[in-house]
Design goal:
317 residues, alpha/beta, three-stranded parallel beta sheet, three-stranded antiparallel beta sheet, 13 strands, globular
Length: 317
């Protein structure tokens, strides 16, 4: 569902620009190749001039050959009664294979975005098995969480989401993530001001706001019977667009990236940080954002979960 929603964004020029031709490589499991043919037919029927070719395959070594961007959307879902170690084992196998294939055949400049959950740990697994690709070329998606946070804040303030910037998602894409509006700003009547002051409800920011974003994915599943697809696809497009073109001056975004020790988060995990992105497609973790005790505790808690996941995945190798 996410891929189906994403393809039109890619093919129409929203993500890479209206002057960037594309060759789309579509990877699926062997059992779904017949259905994938139907997706290829639809892409043909769109008659969009930017799409100059489509490759449909079940072989990662074919799908990843000479690619510039890899969007790894799929992962093994947690089934009823499945223990966490079994889920990690299933996904380890998938992302070991994909990491090795990327290492073997993708461009060394490839930008990799992992979406399939647990996306932080899956990205780390792929990274470890692609030693010839720079670690900073691997990321995981937390832009959906950021978009959700902006929307909730906008609703609370009675403004459009576009009026809000610099909301941060720290840590894991899970129920331990820390949505942080402490350094966000909001534009009201064309005047930009600190969001916490404009909202003037610190208790809500430290309680309901956080839990709403942490549980938003589960709420969507409960309401529609399926996980987020349209909003996830939009967030993937946002993530890649910013990585490709850079962030605006004075604006940062959230990406799950290899920790470099910033904010006392040890190396060895993929952790969501606020980043800026330059015109050469290099991201830079935003430094020196002040953190109170509450924030530090939330950031440490989500790190501890990531560390446990990384250790469990490593133990399965």
């Amino acid at each position: 569902q996410i891929a189906y929603s994403l393809l039109l964004q890619l093919a129409s020029g929203r993500v890479f620009g209206n002057d960037q031709p594309l060759i789309l490589h579509l990877l699926d499991i062997e059992q779904c190749l017949e259905k994938l043919k139907g997706v290829v037919m639809e892409l043909e029927d769109l008659a969009l001039s930017l799409v100059q070719g489509v490759v449909a395959t079940a072989d990662p070594n074919v799908a990843f050959k000479d690619i510039d961007v890899a969007l790894l959307l799929g992962a093994f879902p947690r089934l009823k009664g499945m223990e966490r170690k079994d889920l990690l084992a299933k996904n380890n196998a998938i992302f070991i294979e994909q990491g090795k294939a990327l290492d073997a055949v993708a461009k060394k400049t490839v930008k990799v975005v992992v979406v399939g959950n647990p996306c932080n740990t899956n990205a780390l697994t792929a990274l470890k098995h692609a030693p010839s690709i720079p670690p900073e070329n691997f990321s995981c998606l937390t832009r959906l969480d950021q978009n959700r946070a902006r929307s909730q804040l906008a609703g609370r303030l009675g403004v459009a989401p576009g009026a809000i910037k610099n909301v941060v998602i720290w840590g894991n894409h899970s129920s331990t993530q820390y949505p942080d509006a402490a350094h966000a700003t909001v534009s009201i009547d064309n005047k930009e001001q600190p969001l916490p002051a404009a909202l003037s409800d610190d208790a809500w920011l430290k309680s309901t706001f956080i839990s709403t974003i942490q549980q938003r994915g589960a709420a969507v599943i409960k309401a529609r019977g399926l996980s987020s697809a349209m909003s996830a696809a939009k967030a993937i497009g946002d993530h890649i667009h910013d990585w490709w073109f850079g962030t605006e001056e004075g604006v940062f975004t959230s990406m799950g990236v290899p920790s470099d020790g910033s904010y006392n988060i040890p190396e060895g995990v993929i952790y969501s940080f606020p980043v800026t992105i330059d015109k050469n497609r290099n991201y830079h973790i935003v430094q020196n954002l002040e953190k109170d005790i509450f924030a530090k505790e939330k950031m440490e808690a989500t790190y501890n979960e990531l560390k446990a996941e990384a250790d469990a995945a490593a133990a399965l190798l």
